[in-house]
Every structure is written in C-alpha cells, then in structure tokens.
Amino acid sequence: MPTKEQVLEVLATVDDPEIDKPITELGMVEEVVIEGSRVGVKIKLTVPGCPLKDRITRDVTNAVRQLPGVDDVQVAFGSMNDDERSQLSANLRAERGAANPQMDIAFASADSPTKVIAVASGKGGVGKSSVTVNLAVALAQQGHSVGVLDADIWGYSIPRMLGVSGKPVAFEGMVMPLQAHGCKVISIGFFTDPDRSVIWRGPMLHRALQQFLGDVHWGELDFLLCDLPPGTGDIAISLAQMLPNADMVVVTTPQQAAQKVALRAGKATEQTGMKVAGVIENMATFTCPDCGSTHDVFGSGGGQELADALDTDLLGRIPIDPRLREGGDAGLPLVLSNPDVPASIAVKQVAEQIASRKRSIIGRSLPLSVS
Ligand SMILES: Nc1ncnc2c1ncn2[C@@H]1O[C@H](COP(=O)(O)OP(=O)(O)OP(=O)(O)O)[C@@H](O)[C@H]1O
C-alpha cells in the first residue's frame, strides 16, 4: 500500500496545464485518500468548470498509477475559494517580480530571460502572421518555451493559423494563455465576437497590449513573438515603449515596392529605440512541383536590399509554397505538416539563428568596469 508521501511525491510531477507549475506547489491537492490499492485524489481547480479537467484527470491518474501497489485511481474536483485564488494570484505575480501588479511587465526588466521579438512588415499580406506562427512552432520544436502575442488587434489571424479557439481562463485579474502546438497564445480574437470588427484607437490599443503583456500569466518563456499589425502605427510605438529591449524582425516580399514600405517600418525603430534583429524575405522563389522550374513571382533581391538598408542581416528566404497557405487555413503550420519541404527548412534555419543569438548573449559579461 503506498503512503501519502509517495502519492504527493508523484503528484509533484503533475503540472497544471495552464499555469505550468506542479499542482502540489500551487496548492491544488486538497485531499489524498488511500484504501488498500485504491487511491483517491481531490483537486482544487483554480476556477470552477476549468476546461482542462480531463487533462488533469489523465495526468494525475497516470502519475499515481505508476506507484507499486496501486490498482485504481479516482480523481475528484473542487475549486479554490476566493482567498485561495487571491493568494495564488499574489504568489504568481510576486514570482514574476511585479512590484506594481496591475501595471508591471516582467518582460521589460533588464534581467528578463525572455527575448521578445516583434514581427513587423511594411504592408499587409506579405506573410508576417504566417512567418510568426511557423517561427514560433519551429522554436518550440527546438525545445524553447514560446509565447505568441497576437498584437494585430484589428486584423488578428493567429488563432486561425494555430488552430486554437476558446475563452482563456481568468482569475483575480490574471489571464491564462491558450496552448497550441507547444506555444502559449493570446489574441484579441479569444475575447471578441469573430463577426464584429475591433475598431479601437490609440489608448485602447495601448491598454490591450499592456494587459496582454502584464496580466497574462506567460510563465517562464524563452521567446515571446509579437505579431504586429502592418506599418508603423500605434501598436508598434506602444510595444517599443513598454518593451525597450525587444528586437524587431521585418518581413518583406522580394519586390521593390514592398521592400521600400518595409524600410519605413524598420527605420521607425530608430525613433522608438527598438533594435532590428534581421529581415526575413517571404514568398521568395516558387518552384513548380511538376517540372521543377523556378519563378521569381514577386521579383528577387528585396530581402537582401532591405537588410543592407537597415544595416542588419537577412535571416532567411522562405519560398512560396501553397501548402503554407493551406496549413495556415487549417490551423496546422507548415513546419508541422510538412517539416522537410524547403519553406519549412528555411523557417527552421531562421529559428536556429535567432536561438543561437540568444544563447550568445546569455552568460556574456557586461562591459562594465569599476572605476
Ligand atoms: N511563403 C508563402 N507561400 C504561400 N503562401 C503564403 C506564404 N506566406 C504567406 N502566404 C499566404 O499569404 C496570405 C497572407 O499571409 P499573412 O496573413 O501571413 O500575411 P500578413 O502579412 O500577416 O497579412 P496582414 O498583415 O494583412 O495580417 C495568406 O493567405 C498566407 O497563407
């Protein structure tokens, strides 16, 4: 017969799927009852009717079943009371080091381990959102913890492209992001009626972004990818103000006209203080699947020209691939559905470059001297 300590020990290996921390640490294990080979566990959910009940039941059952002498595991649920929820929320905020819980953005602190990457473009339709989701999933596949913030408030498309929908759970002013293909995701699309347009202007956009950055429990992220709206509008300025350490990656098509507009988006960083970390050329050469001939449908060379003009690197050239669009429409990014095609390989190489740059600054001593 297992002991209560043994049961608690295995329960410590079960994470709450939304908060990403052991249920024992979060105070979610209310009761453990052992009767011979039968073990009953009562879990206190953060909010009643939590949509992830089934997942928690499965994870708790699998963990406790591993113990020798256990034949049957019963999982029951209750929910935290207001005091317990407030305490949990205060603990989570304190952990993030938020001095002013309502306004503080942990990513903004100089010692934040998270690299924030704003994905920008000059004009719409160049594939900025497609690049964001594929890059996010590629980084997650490479073992990084990744968040995706859909900052394209008016024209959000990240939920569809990642195949995720639903209402995020909120408690005590904290919002739990949804999960898709190994990434945590927040989009205005989770909070609005899909058939109604969002017509917010500057201050509302600023506030929405502030909440997405400050009130969402992102946990410990290696990367937060922010899909910006096209152009150089209010959101890009707000993001730069809130996250002065963020880097910008500019997506362009190879054609001159797109590259010129993208240059303006990239140059705007000179005024906002963000750094341009590189350029990604999307919709580069198309290779005919039947005859193998190649076509520069949108011209060529724009990505390199833009990188030169912004004095940064061309991180990659992603070819046109109709399966990338199909994957976006189906909620299954190309790097997952067709990981070995040239467009996926190009995205994965960009992800590796971005990750290796992050590694290169970790542990590097700062150029400070004592005088
Ligand atoms: N490399 C590619 N090959 C084929 N289709 C692509 C590629 N990149 C993007 N697309 C398709 O082009 C269309 C526009 O892409 P996407 O929505 O990602 O652009 P965007 O720049 O984010 O647009 P907006 O700023 O207007 O939201 C989509 O239908 C997408 O599936």
UniProtKB/TrEMBL annotation:
UniProt xrefs under InterPro entries: FSCA_dom_sf, MIP18-like, Mrp/NBP35_ATP-bd, NUBPL-like, P-loop_NTPase, YlxH/NBP35
Keyword Nucleotide-binding among record annotations: yes
Keywords: ATP-binding, Hydrolase, Iron, Iron-sulfur, Metal-binding, Nucleotide-binding
MIP18 family-like domain sequence ranges: 4-75
Signal peptide: none
Family annotation (SUPFAM superfamilies): Fe-S cluster assembly (FSCA) domain-like, P-loop containing nucleoside triphosphate hydrolases
CDD domains according to UniProt: Mrp_NBP35
Domain of life per record: Bacteria
GO biological process, one term: iron-sulfur cluster assembly
Residues reported to bind ATP: 122-129
GO molecular function, one term: ATP-dependent FeS chaperone activity
Subunit (UniProt): Homodimer.
Function: Binds and transfers iron-sulfur (Fe-S) clusters to target apoproteins. Can hydrolyze ATP.
Family affiliation: In the N-terminal section; belongs to the MIP18 family.
Name recorded for this polypeptide: Iron-sulfur cluster carrier protein
Organism: Egicoccus halophilus
Organism lineage: Bacteria, Bacillati, Actinomycetota, Nitriliruptoria, Egicoccales
